[in-house]
Amino acid sequence: QDAGTGTHITLLHTNDVHAHALEESPSMGLAKIAGLADLYREANPNTLLVDDGDAVHGTSFATLVRGESIIKVMNEMNFAALTPGNHEFDYGYERLLELSKMANFPFISANLTQKDTGAAPFEPYIIREVNGVKIGFFGLTTPETAYKTNPNNVTNVSFTDPTEAARKMVAELQGTVDVIVAMGHIGMDQSTEQTSIDIVNAVPGIDVFIDGHSHTLLENGQLENGTLIASTGEYGEHLGVVDLWVDKGDVTKKEAYTVDEKAAANVTPDPEVASLITSIQSSQEPILNEEVAKSSVLLDGSREKVRAGETNLGDLITDAMRSVSGADAAITNGGGIRASIDAGSVTKGDVVTVLPFGNLVISIDVTGADILAALENGATDYPTAKGAFAHVSGITYKIDPAKPAGSRVHSVTVAGAPLDLNKTYNVATNDFLVAGGDEYKMFLGKQQTGTYGTLDEALIQHMQSLGSVNMTTSEKRITAAPT
Ligand code: ATP
Ligand code: ZN
Q1: Residue 8 is inside which H or E element, if any?
Q2: For a tag site, which of 36, 57, 119, 438 has the least CB within 10 Å?
Q3: What share of the chain is helix, strand, coil (3-state, %, to 5)?
Q4: Which pLDDT tens digit goes with each residue over 17-72?
Q5: What pTM does this model have?
Q6: CA distance 11 to 157
Q7: What whole-number distance in Å separates Cα of residue 253 and Cα of residue 5?
Q8: Is the ipTM of this complex over 0.90?
Q9: Which domains are delineated in the chain?
Q10: Ligand 1 pocket: which residues have CB below 6 Å?
Q11: Using CA of residue 395, residue 396, residue 402, residue 407, what is the dihedral sign?
């Protein structure tokens, strides 16, 4: 490749790894990524590795120890900084602060404030001097976190306008540093109110915007308003590389590319990182490999199915919630069911992978009208996938997709009898929905009658009591039918 003039800086980046620490094609695994980083550091000592968020949550490797394993591995990998993404909040705000203290690298975000103190929980930016070149990195966290994690996790946090925060950071860093790098867990999804592209168009002066959240793979970056935007997909399938040349305070050249498992086929995993991952993994194995039950069928938790209709796994999970609580009925959101389970031996590890949020099972007293509103809320986009889609036990209902959203649910029964809008029912659900997550506003502030441990524990217990699972087809608790 053609060199620019001046000092060559290499920025390595990851985003949306979602705790994919282990090598599992096409994920390279963190030891392989560390091995790649070693090679880049050998080739150019002016190399820094950063992460753009959604690192600590998403697999049992992380969930079992509420994120600590990932921080330990990242410490060994010599990360320079991390921007918290929405999933960094999934173990609660206090846990996020604890994880940031376990890290030997800073968590940075310029658009977070703690409501009770008004203070910023993290440094908005850091400055790293590399071979005489000063690089300012500032973080941005998606305001979507306010509704993309359990609302209880963010009651004490405000997410301020990311464009305003970026403008302030550039004003503060310009003149002080040679290179300005934004680390945004912001993304480029059309549905996002302010995308990374919107931000760099509104705020000139950012040399590089390292992006995450939309899981976008930009193979050679994207130049917008003079800013090079780089984003490297998801799950550690690619390592992002940005090459910069800086001469007397000016960036003379910048370019981006990504490295995937094919390109890294001959790279040796970093031995220290590999042995750390192996030792964490083997300490978890006895728990994860414990058999819970046998299933004669695939339990379907695939994203497009559980967010758009009844599946046997949705039935099983809601049955478990009803059984552990003794409630009249159970309702849970399809978006909270994160994987399928293959037929055969079902392990605790499988269950934790399906239900990684550590959600609590909570029973609440609600009216029949609230139940109807909840089912309507899950059915607004039906048959298009939506995280809110309502899986049920003790309830049956029909959806008429020809009717407008909000009035398409009909023929609801509870415990075999037609729904009585004025009657009070005891319903088991999860703490995410009780807090109004996925727009289940009708569950907010309802009288709670009990808390019954976590959803994964309830499912384990239920499957153990069944011994063998053979829900061959779903039970038609939820069907599409005209009114
Ligand atoms: P990313 O930020 O990487 O895109 P994601 O895949 O989780 O992460 P979505 O596909 O939008 O993002 O998933 C969000 C859905 O996940 C929510 O609509 C909700 O159904 C579910 N969800 C998120 N947090 C929780 C939680 N704590 N408990 C239960 N369900 C949750
Ligand atoms: Zn993500």
Answers
A1: strand 7-14
A2: 119
A3: 30, 30, 40
A4: 999 999 999 999 999 999 999 999 999 999 999 999 999 998 889 989 999 999 99
A5: 0.85
A6: 30
A7: 8
A8: yes
A9: 7-284 (3.60.21.10), 291-480 (3.90.780.10)
A10: 16, 54, 86-87, 148-150, 213, 333, 335-336, 357, 359, 387, 432, 438
A11: negative
